[in-house]
Design brief:
With 663 residues, the protein is an alpha/beta fold. 56% of the residues lie in helices and 10% in strands. Among the domains are: 3-92, Gyrase A, domain 2 (2-Layer Sandwich); 176-294, no CATH class; 463-654, Isoleucyl-tRNA Synthetase, Domain 1, CATH 1.10.730. The protein has 23 helices and 15 strands. The protein has a five-stranded parallel beta sheet, with helices on both faces. The chain has a four-stranded antiparallel beta sheet with strand order 1-2-4-3. It binds one RNA strand of 77 nucleotides through helix 15, strand 15, helix 20 and helix 22. It catalyses: tRNA(Arg) + L-arginine + ATP = L-arginyl-tRNA(Arg) + AMP + diphosphate.
Amino acid sequence: MLLQEFTNKLKTEICQNINNAFSDVEDISPDAIQFSAPPNSDMGDYAIACFPFAKALKKAPVAIATDIAANFTPSSLVSKMQAVGPYINVFINKTLFSEVVCRTVMKEEKDYGRGEKKNKTVMIEYSSPNTNKPLHLGHLRNNILGMAIANILDFYGYEVIKVNLVNDRGIHICKSMLAYEKWGNGETPESCGEKGDHFVGKYYVLFDNKLEEEKQQCAKDQKIDLEKLATEIGDLKKQVRNCKDAAQKKELRKKLKDTEKSVEDFNNDFLSNSKLYGDALAMLKKWENNDAEVRALWKKMNAWVMDGFHETYGKLGCEFDKFYFESDTFSLGKKHVEEGAQKGVFAKHDDNSIWVSGESLKKQDSKTFKKFSPKDKLLLRADGTSVYITQDIGTTILKHKDKELDQCLFVVGEEQELHFKTLFSILGILDFSWWEKCRHISYGMVNLPEGKLKSRKGTRVDADELVKEMEQRVVDIITANEKIDIEEDQIANVAEDIALAALKLFLLNISREKALLFDPHKAISSDSGDSAGKSGAIAFTGDTGPYIQYGYARICGIFRNANATATTEVDYAILHSKEEQAVLQKVADFPQAVANAAENDSPHFITTYLLDLTKLLFKFYGVHQVISDDEETKQARLLLCKVVAQVIHNGMKLLGMNVPERM
RNA sequence: AGGGGAGUAGCUCAAUCGGAUAGAGCAACGGUUUUCUAAACCGUAGGUUGUGGGUUCGAGUCCCGCCUUCCCUGCCA
């Protein structure tokens, strides 16, 4: 008997017991049985709350529980049912349960926890980088989350297509191109030994610095003190917040708005007169007109960046079945927008720009836009050049042309929620029946103690550097600890596995939609043993990836030392202790954790599951000796360890983490 | 101003469909190594779940108000 069958049988049996106790009313179906865990394991293996039955059975929950317990007849599965208040606590046959769990895991191995084939295809877009700068911590959250969700959906039984939409076109790309052209002196990543994405990113920052210089000069010439205005705005915001008097508040608001307007006006004025920005725009125009020289530079620099990205993806274990490039898809979007204007579902203004009205967005998706009316949205500029949403229209249409999809997912940060609501509604307006199968998988921002991550300012945490630093810390820990027995040439590999697991679990272990706080100062000095280090944002002890890996490595160590293998032909009655049963219960829960993660697009169900499992493993480990003089005991416990190792392996794989055998 | 999140222990976070005494980790304090790796284990302490109402057998969870905070409301991406 396998686990699934056991659970079904258990529910049926319990159901029969309930129905026997209440023969005069309509039967309860096994699906209505909801297992939960009693507050502690002495009270039983499963708990069933009787509140939901109260209506059908026309009795108080407490009375229902007592009646069920009174009418209970023991079976091979269930040994006891005990009423405690409105709860029924179920004691199961531990020997049988242990055997069922162990045999199931040992039989299914890598497939333990796998969901049934759904015969449905899901496309998941994630990463979606801009090719003008290297990846930072915010991108890491996206990449690691996206990859984990893709793995989980695949394991749950979907056919999953992982795609990356590369934002390789637009004014931001031209900025780094222009800076390189002006100040690059023909350098290449090779010539200065830099990773391609970092190399290009340098010029993106350079452009921004030069533009800022120009702006400061311009402000000085016009005798405008931008700094003063900024502090003024800050002060006004504070005053507005603290102001109690309504009339005064209104006045302050007006003043604030005026000040903000003056800054905005200055900025707009500056940009439209800026030589540097004008050059970038001119370059964009040239790009759109297929200027050979600009296109050649664009190709060269994009290739550098993509080389760098591929290296980082390889390191992180991010994989893609297909790359879409905005430069290939924006014209398809343009075409559909123009057709929409022709059909009359979009509005063409006198200046030839094309718009979708807020009204029609609302009409198309009245559920999403129930509580507010969106503003009209520009789809194509007057000069015919496309905006951000234009290419997404094209890309999404192309995705559905390439493959018939049952779900089309976008792993993108929460700041783009309105963008995707608008996009999906537009696709509906364009009469694509699949528009409702599109879903934005939104996730929270990554923040530093000082605020937002900003690529152009100094406040960024570079992805490559972060990983490198963490690896070095692990190497230091390994070298400092004499007890760790790893071949010299393996240290780098193991350090990489551990550093990445620490990073990934840190990013995946909080709810997807929640913002994430990262304190780099605490993270970096974490191996020196000082107290500041121990509170590090990405630690290697406690609830971490390495903790789970350590549990796995310890099990490997046991098998290695005992030169043993596991067999399912053991005396399952040995595994009766509280600790052993807790572990096996947890092992049995793995398929449910996978289902929860898949159905909510939330890997954190897996991370919390694995941490719980590992804690129970160590708890067991602390109380019971695996390699014991008694051969029967040894065999049974070895099997238990083997089963746990298998589940850790399966779960960690879903999260994109390796499990080293020594650490 | 409007729309959407969030607010739980000193810090970072959990908490199945609304269910039994709100849990972990870190930080603090105390203990564990001649026994399978101390990246571990055990113990102590730490809470009016932002706030005020409501719904009911029962609310961190659902509804309404308020406070705080983040995001969005670009011819940026």
